[in-house]
Design a protein that fits this description.
Layout lengths: L11 E7 L8 E7 L17 H14 L2 E7 L1 H7 L1 H15 L6 E5 L11 E4 L7 H24 L5 H4 L5 H10 L21
Parallel strand pairs: 1-4, 4-5
Antiparallel strand pairs: 1-2, 2-3
């Protein structure tokens, strides 16, 4: 069972991102404020859940959260400012969209750019420790998956409906055959030289 809060005095928002390691598409981030009494037996790090479980949890989170927001930074901005800064920017955008201003921010990972004057705590593997970060990871992941499935209708040759832009062998092979789409991140290493040995 995850922990409901980091401290009991301030309004906490959990933050996480999805799509940082992808070769194409935007990076998404979410910010979630949950009630202090929030509990759920299944909610944990989105990577440990099935797609069906994630989408079911999204409905539960959005229904029970005090406030939530999802934001994205596109592939062009990622290439311009790098993926780490783009991830921070996406989190800041999500925090800006919250209907309630948080008094404390819990961030998954070990680095973060300060948001306004709000104190924050970086927590390594926080999406497997705190409900609010896990909830943010679910929203970021499911909204990004929806986006990439829609984008796959325009570019079906890259199989984004299944790989969501992550660097699978099939995705890399499609880039070797078809070249980059308009949505690929130009600053990322798309192809692996070893791939060519198997074509």
């Amino acid at each position: 069972m995850l922990l409901p809060y980091f401290q009991n005095d301030l309004i906490e928002a959990g933050c996480d991102e999805a799509g940082r390691g992808c070769l194409a598409g935007p990076v998404f981030a979410a910010a979630v404020i949950l009630p202090k009494s929030f509990q759920h037996d299944v909610l944990t790090d989105s990577k440990q859940l099935t797609s069906k479980e994630r989408f079911e949890l999204r409905i539960f989170i959005e229904t029970n959260a005090i406030a939530f927001a999802v934001a994205q930074v596109d592939h062009l901005e990622i290439d311009r400012i790098n993926i780490l800064n783009a991830s921070f920017l996406a989190m800041h955008k999500a925090l800006q969209q919250l209907s309630i201003v948080p008094e404390m921010i819990l961030v998954d990972g070990n680095r973060f750019h300060k948001y306004l004057t709000v104190p924050h705590q970086c927590i390594i593997k926080g999406d497997g420790k705190y409900f609010s970060i896990a909830a943010a990871s679910i929203l970021a992941k499911t909204y990004r998956d929806d986006f990439m499935c829609k984008l796959s209708e325009e570019c079906p040759e890259y199989h984004w409906i299944s790989n969501k832009g992550y660097p699978t062998a099939r995705h890399r092979e499609a880039v070797i055959i078809h070249g980059m789409s308009p949505y690929h991140r130009r600053t990322f290493r798309i192809t692996d030289p070893q791939m060519e040995l198997f074509l």
